[in-house]
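step: validate -> pass
step: tokenize input -> pass
step: predict -> running
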Amino acid sequence: MKDFDPAANDIPVPIIKRRFIVPDRHSAEEAWAATEALEQELEPSDTDGVVKPQPDYTVPPERRDQPHQPPDSGSSRDAPSEIPHAPKASTRKASSEPELNAPLAPPERDAQPIQPTTARKMHRWFFATAAAVIIASGLWFSDAGQILHSAEPLAQITNSQGSYTRNNRAHKEAVEIFQGDTLSTAAGGVLAIRLGDHTVVTLDENTEVALLAEDVLKVANGRVYIDSPNPNSAILVSTPFGDIVDIGTRYAVTVAPESLNVAMREGVAKVTTPAATLYASVTNGLGDVISIDKDANVETRHLATADEQWQWTQKAIPDFDLYSASIQELLQWSSRVTGKEIIYVTESAQKAAQQTHLPDGQLSTDAISQQLPEILKTAALIVEERRNAFVIATTPIDELVPSL
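step: predict -> pass
step: emit ->
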């Protein structure tokens, strides 16, 4: 406390030592050091006048009567200038009343603009997140925003003859086909692809197609053959002249610069053009052939399901694996390849075909007529190949079976 000087006409000002309830994590030395610092702040100046007493803060009862003890100079801890959570004392003028209950205002802080480096980091984070979402969704986009392909393949190339291109790149081996991929064959080339529902699409030479979706095929030019064994699935074939939809059928689509040709081999297909909606089917071994020119003129004729014009579709069909297959399964495959019907003369012949399984071996499409009779002999069956059918019997086929 400041000494009294009569010559200076000083009026002694009582100094109130304010003591605080200090959290346990602070030592006694820190508490007393803080109290000493507050005493120095409350020293009056020549112009301030008398400082009014500040409200007392209570201390724990065991410290109320203890005299002030300064911290030991040999202490290993330095006393901080202020204690966290303790109110900070300030010198007040004599003319102003202290606001004891005034709320504490938060410190004023200047808003800091986002630095360029922070903005760049945010942009990098945004684009990285967007790329991760695109990759996780499995879609890729072109510069124009068009979906190019999905991350999962939609089809598989099962067989090919000659060279072909995928997305304008030459290939000679079987590859996976993705959404948006384009395929094209050169002169003398034939290509077969299998979709997810086991539909087989065969491309003839000089043909270009694009797989837009798992059930949408766009034919720009050339000829394709659709073999869809699943009656519960429908494949949409899109052409510049119109769209064709089938349900479990076999047919060929030919796109020329001046016309569209749809030839049926099995089942029913709907042909939709800007001018009309047409239906094509098969009756008694004869399939409808619908031709539409650029002026929307329609012409209809018929083609036998076993006609030689279908032989080009056999070029890309894989060989049949005989191992553990039944003769009935072999005959069904032969019928699908050649377009010929299977006729069993007797029930015993059909039962023998169902129960007889074959040993190891392969049968190619171009050897069906030569090797099928030899294979059926293992089950004591006789096969006679006719124009539109394979006739199966257990004994020599007599005149009771009409010519087909």
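step: describe -> Confidence is low (pLDDT under 50) at residues 13-26, 74-98, 133-147.
step: cleanup -> pass
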